[in-house]
Specification:
Blueprint: H1 2-36, H2 53-58, H3 61-93, H4 99-105, H5 108-111, H6 114-125, H7 131-138, H8 152-180, H9 184-192, H10 197-225, H11 229-234, H12 246-256, H13 260-293
Length: 294
């Protein structure tokens, strides 16, 4: 018993730094934000307890549009990243000459500092001297300069494409690693039986990379849902709020307007959504693990 007890104590000692990190860096700010959401905290000296008033303020027609816009923005961004990432990983996994060089070419969007990459896209979206507008005019697709970030519809999709450009390399490399972990014996046996490339991809590759697809989809979803830099640098939520997502709205209320209590309520709502996403992820992965055991 003494040996077992000492083993348990030693294990807790090893876990202590991680436990302290979670309590100090994660748990305390989360609890403090939750408490703050029930107050009217701002720049004024006194802070009063207001109960559920801050939560009542965010459930209005305008914020409902922000929530829907956030989910639409996240859905299209993650979906496009997964489609392009899967296609890119399949191409990079193929036995073609120079594939090491092709893999290297996927890295720049991920290596370049995010702010610099976003500013670069901002210049390309410019209507007067941007590359995209210039190319469209040269090919006769548009009759004049197109200021992509000046209109709600084009600005919305411009932020999505920028997020896709930044996120695709990570998805591609993650799925490429999953594909390379598949035993080659499976492909050789299928090839011997006369299976074509499409059939091998559909019946071997896709089923075996499903866990990796689910994991990277979840990670990408959380990162995209919380994405602040891309929208803020390109549009700051404009024009006319057409690119304002929940994280942008929270910043505008809590930091720009100095309404810390209302901003905290919005942050709690974001945390609830992400917790639901995480629970769904763990439920799916546990079912997959149970299926593998069977």
């Amino acid at each position: 018993m003494s040996v077992q007890r000492s083993t348990v104590i030693f294990a807790w000692i090893l876990l202590l730094p991680a436990v302290l990190y979670v309590l100090v860096i994660v748990a305390y700010p989360l609890v403090d934000t939750f408490i703050l959401s029930f107050t009217d905290a701002s720049l004024k000296k006194t802070t009063n307890w207001v109960g559920w008033i801050n939560y009542g303020k965010i459930f209005n027609e305008r914020f409902a549009e922000v929530i829907v816009r956030t989910f639409v923005w996240t859905f299209f961004s993650v979906s496009i990243k997964m489609i392009i990432g899967t296609f890119g990983a399949t191409m990079l996994n193929a036995a073609v000459p120079g594939r090491a060089l092709f893999r290297l070419f996927t890295m720049p969007p991920w290596i370049v500092p995010m702010a610099i990459g976003i500013f670069m896209w901002g210049w390309m979206y410019n209507g007067q001297f941007g590359m995209i507008s210039g190319v469209l005019q040269n090919f006769g697709l548009v009759s004049g300069p197109v200021a992509f970030l000046a209109y709600g519809g084009t600005a919305f999709w411009a932020t999505i494409f920028t997020d896709v450009w930044i996120g695709v390399p990570l998805v591609t490399l993650y799925l490429l690693a999953a594909m390379q972990a598949i035993p080659q014996d499976l492909y050789e046996a299928a090839w011997t039986d006369g299976a074509g490339r499409l059939y091998r991809f559909r019946r071997i590759t896709l089923p075996l990379i499903v866990p990796a697809v689910i994991t990277i989809s979840m990670l990408s979803l959380i990162a995209t849902f919380n994405s602040f830099d891309i929208i803020w640098i390109l549009t700051q939520g404009g024009p006319n709020g057409q690119t304002t997502t929940m994280i942008i709205d929270t910043y505008q209320v809590a930091i720009a307007s100095k309404k810390y209590g209302e901003g905290a309520a919005r942050a709690v709502l974001i945390c609830i959504f992400l917790s639901i996403f995480s629970l769904c992820y763990f439920r799916i992965t546990s079912r997959l693990a149970a299926g593998d055991k069977r």
